Amino acid sequence: MLFHRTQYAQGISKIFIQQRRIYTEIYQLEELQRLYDLLKHESLSKTHSLSKKMDPNGIFSNNELNLQKIQVYGFDFDYTLARYKSSLHSLIYDHAKEFLVKNLKYPDDLMNFCFRPGMGARGLHLDIKRGWLMKLDSYHNIQLGTVYRGMNAISAEEVIAAHNGTKLSIDIVGYLGKTTNMFQFVDIFSIPEITLLRDVTQYFIDNNIPFGSEYVFYDVTEAVTAFHISGMMHQIVGKDVKTYFEENNRLKSFLQRLHDANKQIFLITNSAYWYVNRGMTYLLGENWRDFFDVIICQARKPSFFGAEQRPFREIDVDNNSKSWNRVNKLEHGKVYVEGNLADLIEMTHWKGNDVLYIGDHIYGDLADLFLKYGWRTGAILEEVEEEINIINSESFQKTIQWLNVLQWLINHLQIIPGPEADALMKTWVAEREDEKAKSRDLFNPYFGSVFRTHTVPTYFHRRLARFADVYTSNVCNFLSYPLDYIFFPRRVALAHENVLPTPDINLLLMDTAHHAMRFETAHVQYEK
Questions:
Q1: Which of 323, 383, 457, 461 has the most CB atoms around its CB within 10 Å?
Q2: Binding of GMP: at which residues (predicted)?
Q3: For position 320, what pLDDT does the model report?
Q4: C-alpha to C-alpha distance for 462 and 452, rounded to whole angstroms
Q5: Could you tell me which residues are annotated as the binding site for GMP?
């Protein structure tokens, strides 16, 4: 009899506990849904700034850099000292498509195409054989939703099937942007090339023309390269600098400040002297060479920084001819071509930590200098200013605010079991994906931000952080900082660390003032 009573009591207890658990789960779910409504209204209705705005013209640090220790400043020319208007992209696109039609016998219809901004982005990878453009994150993961063949989006299922998932090995991706079947578009000159590649691919698809994607890539690359190496681009731009070069009223002041501070200044560029002279004369005036201690043109970077030991040659700037005399020292006021970094260091005695070299190509300009020679490096990326302006916008900040809150709600929803919670989870996860797409499209509707995916940096930013001590949108942004300024990298919490709060300086100052007032009051009362 006692046994049956015990079983009965246990059964009643289980029913009570189960009912209480169900009640608790329903209550938690209702509370979470109520919290969702309140937080969404709060997140999306705020009109004040949700976070501190970043300076679009700031300089940002990956590695600590003390300018007081820098005695030598070096610069690239294209997209570093010289900035170009968007008209240059149209020029490259138009001449490359003409090369495809006239030299490689592509369909005449291509001549009706025109360059359109936003079709490409720096840092993208191309699966050459498949013709897939894609964005990779810093862990070599393909970002689903950013994979395109021509203008056609590739589904997540097709991408995963082709690569057995989304993660690519280092053998496939490569270390410096190129393998047998993967190519990374790194510099801003590649934007018209990407656009033309997409347009030609889409034309073949729409017109049912059989083609190999790798052939189109090689042909478009040949067409763009021919426009560069033939000298045709420089001839056109050099004759009409006002149409293609951006004016930069701050450049002379920047170089003058370095000169007045007795800093040594040098220029290393792959461009020919006559072309550099046209651009620099437009930007700085006839006496632009007075700013530079060493001027090196036609340097053949990145070979200039590598093992190749080609000697320097002086050129006669009046008739643009090379001298046969051996160069044993590099002199102020003279112009040199070719050469190599080892001879430059031997002739100038410039030590790595004393030198800051600034360029726009993270591989061609910065990688070898950073890894092999210990020079300090700076990257010039126009996209920084553009993206910060988007980050500072109210629409972006509200979207990210709500995304973070929604993620927090999803984390709490995950621990609540039951079919109602599962259904709500699907709804919220789908909303999260929609909000992620919305934040991506603010930067670029195809590929999003150059520098980040939703949660982690892009592969391009990982390389940038590896090879550039600092980066900014314009070389003249250095004018906003004194020459003894120390750039400190931001302390970022690791996954296992707490996120350390950034102090509110205004609150700290107010608190300090209140303490001072209380001390002053107490001191006066004590004297009385």
A1: 461
A2: 78
A3: 80
A4: 9
A5: 78
The residues near 114 (Cβ < 8 Å, ≥ 6 apart) are 90, 93, 94
CA distance 316 to 329: 16
Quote the tokens at residue 498: 């707490």
3-state secondary structure of 97: helix
Structure tokens at 158: 């097709």
Q: How far apart are CA 357 and CA 367, in angstroms?
A: 11
Which of 76, 137, 187, 199 is catalytic? The answer is 76
Laid out side by side, the sheet with 148-149 consists of 152-153, 148-149, 132-134, 125-127, 182-184
What DSSP string describes 381-443?
-THHHHHHHHHTSHHHHHHHHHHHHHHHHHHHHTT--SHHHHHHHHHHHHHHHHHHHHHHHTT
Report the alpha-carbon distance of residue 146 to residue 149 in Å, rounded: 10
Helix, coil or strand: residue 474: coil
d(CA 174, CA 163): 16
Known catalytic residue at 78: yes
Q: Looking at the chain, how many residues does it have?
A: 528
- The model's pTM is 0.86
**Alpha-carbon 45 to chain mean position:** 31
Q: Which two tokens stand for residue 77?
A: 């020319």
What's the mean per-residue pLDDT of the chain?
88
Backbone φ and ψ for 368, nearest 5 degrees, come out as: -65, -40
Q: What is the mean pLDDT of residues 415-442?
A: 91
Please report which helix (H) or strand (E) contains residue 338, including its range: strand 335-338
* Cα–Cα distance for residue pair 13/4, rounded to 1 Å: 14
Choosing from 37, 78, 108, 469, which is the catalytic residue? 78
Query: How many other C-beta atoms are found inside a 10 Å radius of the C-beta of residue 387?
Result: 22
Q: What is the pLDDT of residue 318?
A: 84
- Are 451 and 466 within 8 A, CB to CB? no
Count the neighbouring beta carbons within 10 Å of the beta carbon of residue 179: 16
